Amino acid sequence: MLCQAASKMAIKVIVLDPSENCPASALAYDHMVGSFDDSATVEEFAKRCGVLTVETEHVDVATLEKLEQQGIDCEPKASTIRIIQDKYLQKVHFSRHGIPLPEFMEINNLEETKRAGEQYGYPLMIKGKRLAYDGRGNAVAKSEGELSSAIDVLGGFGRGLYVEKWAPFIKELAVIVARGRDNSILCYPVVETIHKENICHIVKAPADVPWRIRKLANDVAYKAISSLEGAGVFAVELFLTRDGQILLNEVAPRPHNSGHHTIESCYTSQFEQHLRAVVGLPLGDPSMKTPAAIMYNLLGEDEGEPGFKVAHQLIARALEIPGATAHWYDKPEMRRQRKMGHITLVGPSVGVLEARRKSMLREEGYENRNEVAPRVGIVMGSDSDLPVMKDAARILNMCGVSTEVRIVSAHRTPELMYSYASSARERGIQVIIAGAGGAAHLPGMVASLTPLPVIGVPVRASTLDGIDSLLSIVQMPRGVPVATVAVNNATNAGLLAVRMLGVGDADLLARMNQYQEDTRDYVLTKAEKLRKDGWEAYLNQ
């Protein structure tokens, strides 16, 4: 994927990989077969590079340090790789820089481990310092009696171990951070990562967490990467705890699985960004160009040919889904739980995409969920409001805006109203039009439950001629904004919704312009007829 990005930027990428048929070999400018653990091979490889960067942190740091002394441009710096490839040193480094972390300590024997268990409690996370990724190198002891077996699984104390206090997290988050050669730093939107058997399985962008948590996560990630040296893209993995804390789990000094969605969902993919950073180009815009994205890892379901067959069937189903893109890594060997590719879904909301993902996987109850999600919700307290509210639906249908129409009463079905309003954004709704007569509480109550724009339509009732409804809607308290239109004028509510959506939709703006031109032509036609026929003939037609 780095080579694919480079091909669009006139950057030549040479890869060093021990496998003759590695996935990048077909796309790279050149491929040198050899181990990145072998000092002589790395030195020979470096002679051919203007900039030397890494796609894995498990490299020979001593060789990188030697190359830097010889004037080779390594990005990120060897000092950063040295810190990150030893997870205990990584924790010590970030602790010294005031980054919030789970409590941790080094262990060298069973007695020290027992004391750690007494201090931190159980379950206790035991980790290997080096060569740990995708859950490898981690073991959990649920009691003191499980300590010995957990340590044996990790290869014993000779491997180098440390323990972490169990982090009571409710979500795992991640932030891709780009750092330029000029030390400029940009953060990508915070994502949620969901793991299956300790391997990243699903990434949801943006993470469904409050804005305060997103800012805190970005601040922690920014501070962590500011403490390191060198340019490139970094992945900062985080824990969100029950009490709203953000704790740093670990950092990867390279493009990362949690950022694969950026190829389709962001203005600058993490791969392009890494290239920009290491060669000294200006960093690109990391913001999302689509409201939401889900990345689904294609993990090996079986060994060999049966596994390939399952993966290809899933890709075929994915390509039936709007906004789906499949990436196949072309690894020569299929193994269970091996990352063979990924599928990215982009669309109006994470909730809509989650339904499409489940449809792709043929999960029960989601067999046919690829229909177009409604962008506007039209709600009213009673079917007696429908003769008025139908005009909004007609305008939206005429403009090609997907719409749903529901009866939701603020007084008679308050639970349904709460459920509808609070779930609307996640279901892909972008604007809500609420019709109400009399007390007209529905628009304001809906607006208090959603961050979406709400347009209230005052409906004329049998008394007070709709003035009561109009005054109720415009008298919402500060902090609960509701737009409104004239009594019974659902047409204008529909047009206003189209204009709101048109801010980010050129096709809708064009449709609105056409509507205005058609309205003008209609009036001009009548004016010409009146001028030509005279008022008496005009009225008698």
UniProtKB/TrEMBL annotation:
Recorded coiled-coil stretches: none
Top-level taxon: Eukaryota
Signal peptide: none
E.C. code: 4.1.1.21
Pathway this chain belongs to: Purine metabolism; IMP biosynthesis via de novo pathway; 5-amino-1-(5-phospho-D-ribosyl)imidazole-4-carboxylate from 5-amino-1-(5-phospho-D-ribosyl)imidazole (carboxylase route): step 1/1
Domain ATP-grasp: 91-279
Cellular component per GO, a single term: chloroplast
Keyword ATP-binding attributed: yes
Gene Ontology biological-process entries: 'de novo' IMP biosynthetic process
Keywords from the named record: ATP-binding, Decarboxylase, Lyase, Nucleotide-binding, Purine biosynthesis
One Gene Ontology molecular-function label: metal ion binding
Pfam families listed in its UniProt record: AIRC, ATP-grasp, PurK_C, RS_preATP-grasp-like
Family: In the C-terminal section; belongs to the AIR carboxylase family. Class I subfamily.
PANTHER family: PHOSPHORIBOSYLAMINOIMIDAZOLE CARBOXYLASE (PTHR11609:SF5), PURINE BIOSYNTHESIS PROTEIN 6/7, PUR6/7 (PTHR11609)
Protein name: phosphoribosylaminoimidazole carboxylase
Lineage, opening ranks: Eukaryota, Viridiplantae, Streptophyta, Embryophyta, Tracheophyta
